[in-house]
């Protein structure tokens, strides 16, 4: 439970844990071949969707919320299991184009990446376990992605929980297209 018995933060923490569980269950039987298969059109390969979801959470929690460094630049530098990090939306000239190119180039070592993902999830859980409900009201600047000022709670709900669930659906659909459950 959060440090002051914060009921809302405790509830949000449970939702984040659920999203992590669903994402990992969805990825559990994904092979390297499945992860790198390039679907037609603009859909992300499975590995890119997974990497994007987890690295985004790492950055949001450890940089935007905590004001520190992401795990991919700290204890997991060079050990994330992905061949290259996604483009930085704050500095990319054509983020959508750069992201599409990255999504087709990136290669993922699923075992190494799963270990990194577990560290990201633990970091998020530690942050939320010590956050009072008022932390969810704290404003953060999302102008770099055209969203202006938002609250930490908005970001957790949409860019951590919603993002993970959205990618679960995307990954599930891509597994189905590849003839998998």
Overall geometric form: globular
Helical residue percent band: 55-70%
- How are the strands ordered across the major sheet? 1-2
Judged by helices, strands and strand pairing, the structural class is: mainly alpha
Provide a descriptive summary of the structure in words.
The chain has 181 residues and is mainly alpha-helical. The chain is 57% helix and 3% strand. The chain contains 6 helices and 2 strands, in the order H-H-H-H-H-E-E-H. It has a two-stranded antiparallel sheet with strand order 1-2. Strand 1 and strand 2 (149-151) form a beta hairpin. Helix 1 (7-27) packs antiparallel against helix 5 (110-129), helix 1 (7-27) runs parallel beside helix 6 (152-177) and helix 3 (46-65) packs parallel to helix 5 (110-129). The longest helix has 26 residues, at 152-177. It is globular, with a radius of gyration of 16 Å.
Give a concise summary.
The protein has 181 residues and is mainly α. The protein has helices at residues 7-27, 32-36, 46-65, 95-105, 110-129, 152-177; strands at 139-141, 149-151.
